[in-house]
Amino acid sequence: MNISEGRQFRSKAAGKCLAAAFFVTANFAIAQTVDGESAISSMSPLERSEIEVRANDKINAMLRGRTFFPGQASPLIARSRLDPKTNELLVDLGEENGLHAESLEMEDLQKHITEAASHVLGSIDGWEGVDLRFGGKDMYFWFPQQRPAEDLVRPAAATDDAKASSTDTIVLSAGHGVYYHEGYKKWIPQREVFFSAREDDVTQDFVAQLNQQMIRELWGRKRQKLEVVLARSLSSDIHEESGRPWRDIAGRYRIKALYPDIPELWHSRPDNQGVDNERIEDMYSRPALANHVNAAASIHIHTNAWEPETRGARFYYQKGQPESKRLASSLACHVREVLKSRPEFPDYVVDAVGRTGNYAELRSAKMPSSLIEIGFHTNEKDAAAMQRPDFRKFAMAGVRKGYELFRAGVACDPFKVTSITNISTFGSTISLQATYSGTPTFPVYLELGDEFGNVTYAQASSPAAPNLLEFDIQCRRRRAQVKFVGYFDDDDYVLTKKPFTADCWGWMGG
């Protein structure tokens, strides 16, 4: 997503430990359990009033003296109140701004308001986000055609055999891209560059990585089948109209090339004569494509913008859609655990659960959908991380598993070793057992390294019993480090530590 036009912003080495340790690396997630949806409703009226005043002050400090969209009734003044029934902060911007409720600029403003409010409400369990009002009315008073479906439950296959033979279609949408501006009479990107990162380009890098992982799963060990549809092309071939690589071009034009005879998919606003009409149509073309291909889910990747110190990944879903909420929270859960466990990114901020949003890419989708803001390109650390291939691999591994477990109906649960017995024994082969919780991706490998740098491996292709891992390991001489590694095409990407000692003496003696 973006800031309002014209707004300005400020700008391995790993030490070796002699003590043996047990590390678990796997494709898993632990999320903060947030079941406190009654937290706001259980507050006293006085407590809610105090929070409302603080949140309102933060929001109005952000709004003061700024113009966010053409035709804005100036100055913008917010009036905020907590709704204990929905656990949302209702922010009223005045009836005079209702005619702008559908604009993409208003979507960006909602993001900014949410970030401002999160300084006060972010730590409250059950807070669902911000819902905008205009003179007490929501956007659908002015734009009833934009009202989304209330729920999107896609029935699961009745049997395992049916699941094995069924194929899910998932739409992956990289945010923005180059479009034709009628005023400038040229092709331009939708976003500006911050810290060498442009959202139009960075989002393509993330989708390319996610697409690769999704396709590998299609031909890999999982029974679930996937067909991936991309809203934007990843091709380096030249788009003739613009003279630029297809990879740079916004989704509207790819969808036009795929479906030239269905203009309602990519030319949804024929009566709009605005200079940036094709930018607006681009946004609406993404869910239109997902609806057309009868997708099981759609995932939209963006980068975020706010004050320079604000960091982290956000996961949005459309209000009133429990399945979209479940998807967003599953994605958040698994991205959080993958990134939080990596020594390369120990302080990367990731929301524990999804947030409500009211965005064009989500409203008209007829399937569970989530919009991911993977980081803030206006923050130097986030921008640097998002330009690293390893960060993209780890983050998208979390998205892939989050979707996988969403479809399987599995709640977020930590993969962790709950118990393991220390070993001190003779013999070249040792049987090692460990109990675990969560949902690792099998096979899980145990890596055994000794103090001389020698490494051997053992494999658990499936649980030996419910929540039990069992390995036969070749033990090297003297004290060793033991590591569980869960692989995805030979790339381990989640690490969790549990103290463990393996004192083993093989045939060479101690």
Automatic annotation (TrEMBL):
Q: Does the keyword Transcription regulation apply?
A: no
Protein name from the UniProt record: N-acetylmuramoyl-L-alanine amidase
Q: Looking at its record, which EC class is this enzyme? A: hydrolase
- Species in which this protein is naturally found: Luteibacter rhizovicinus DSM 16549
GO process annotations (BP)? peptidoglycan catabolic process
Catalysed reactions listed for this entry: Hydrolyzes the link between N-acetylmuramoyl residues and L-amino acid residues in certain cell-wall glycopeptides
**Any idea of its EC number?**
3.5.1.28
**What CDD domains does its record include?**
MurNAc-LAA
Q: Name one GO cellular component term.
A: outer membrane-bounded periplasmic space
Q: Does the keyword Hydrolase apply?
A: yes
GO MF, one annotated term: N-acetylmuramoyl-L-alanine amidase activity
What keywords is this UniProt entry annotated with? Answer: Hydrolase
